[in-house]
Amino acid sequence: MSVTVRSAIPADLPEIFRYIHALAEYEKAPAEVVLSLADLERSLFCENPQVYCELSQLGDEITGIAIWHLNYSTWLGKHGIYLEDLFVDPKYRGAGHGKALLIRLAQICVERGYPRFQWWVLDWNKPAIDFYKSLGAQAMDQWTVFRLNEDAITKLAAESN
User: Fold this and answer.
1) What number of helices (H) and strands (E) belong to the chain?
2) Which listed residue (19, 52, 92, 132) is catalytic?
3) 4-158 sits in which CATH class?
4) 52 is catalytic
């Protein structure tokens, strides 16, 4: 039996939710997940979704998730894929499940004419970094990520010009 990849359906929500929490545990940030199952359902299965999920599976068992959305390059004038989460059950790592998910996302890029496919990886996650490099991904070391959290957004929004 070989790994297959398919788009998520509403019946997959509990497993997707479980994998999101497993990823947060792996990344040493379980308390940061405030997402509810209802939030996830609204995001993935609303009338006009902006977030998507592909699943890897072996037989009927879901083995991994790839949650993604579109980004945009003003320099290229085209959309691309931003991979928000990639997580494969540890017992299936090294067996092609993560690669199958990334292959599917690369295929979507090709099918839709997206010239870019990118994601973040924690700098301590050497197994993931090595895996991504083995696929031809390049680290964008010259870029620094910035983020405003909810409090900072509220404070900035309240300022006047």
Assistant:
1) 5, 5
2) 132
3) alpha beta
4) no
